[in-house]
Description:
Blueprint: E1 7-9, H1 19-29, E2 34-38, H2 43-51, E3 54-57, H3 63-69, E4 75-78, H4 86-100, E5 105-111, H5 119-122, H6 126-132, H7 142-157, E6 161-166, H8 180-184, E7 187-190, H9 202-214, E8 223-226, H10 234-245, E9 250-253, H11 256-267, H12 272-286, H13 296-301, H14 308-313, H15 316-323
Parallel strand pairs: 1-2, 1-4, 2-3, 4-5, 5-6, 6-8, 7-9
Amino acid sequence: MPERNPILITGAAGEIGGVSRTMVDMLLEQGHPVRAFVRQDDERAHSLRQAGAEVFVGDLLTIADVSAALKGVRRIYFSMSLSPYYTDAVSLMAAAARAQGDIEVFVNMSEYEQSFMTFEKLTAPEEERRAWLGGLVANWSPQQRAHWVAEQVLEWSGLPAVNVRAAMFVENPLMTWLALEPLSRGELRLPFGDHRLAPIAGYDVAEVCAKILADPAPHISKSYELNGPEAKDMHGFAEDFAAVLGRPVTYVPEDVETWNETYVDTALAAIPHTAEHLKTLTRLMGGGGYRGTTDQLETLLGRPPKTVRWALENHPRIQKLASA
């Protein structure tokens, strides 16, 4: 039966195709009332209202707003853009949820790295950390640290939490808009050598989260590690891009730090927190420290994950490049 109390979805004003916005549409289609937490009352908020969501305009870092947004809510999905204040926002939401009581589930969007960049591994001597993480990185990025702390806060809170640890999205800037200019020349320039990755489609993550929110009881206190359908190297990804763009694409491997300076530092100079997170990801993947795949998504949804090619075919920036 559909939940009658509104389900709170943060980050709901993201781009159409983003996880939170996709979840809003999925839950509304299933008959669940949704309260979408947004930062600004703009055209994206208007689009959410048109879709049938109740829109709450507020600041995730203002406890009065967070508490007001939770009134009448029993199920929470928390996500937020990369931010130096990510842990603050999770903690405020957890505090408000504890104060209100009667929360049935707190679905926390985490990250796949939490499954192997663990407390035990990250407190080992530096030489051991580097060896474990591929040799190019020894510590969490500031955002990875924030996600680790957020998971601890939720555990300490006693709330009925579920951590959804998603692998790198196909829609990640590393795979999409930072790669666009070389792609326009038929080159997939990335610093990942011959290492194999299994990025996940944002749509799949949204469907898993919506499933948990619709029926939370079987999932409480669990952490799920989600990947795409298969691990493959960048030559395989170049084939996917070529198929979607309708033109030849060749993988051109680059040095990790040269690529970071050329693409990340140039594009994200004004957002150092995000830049440092992406550079840590490139070092992890470029050093071969991004570990393994799981079948947890297929178990949860009863179907294989969406392919990289499917995600690219449904990505607005890639679609625009294909039609250029």
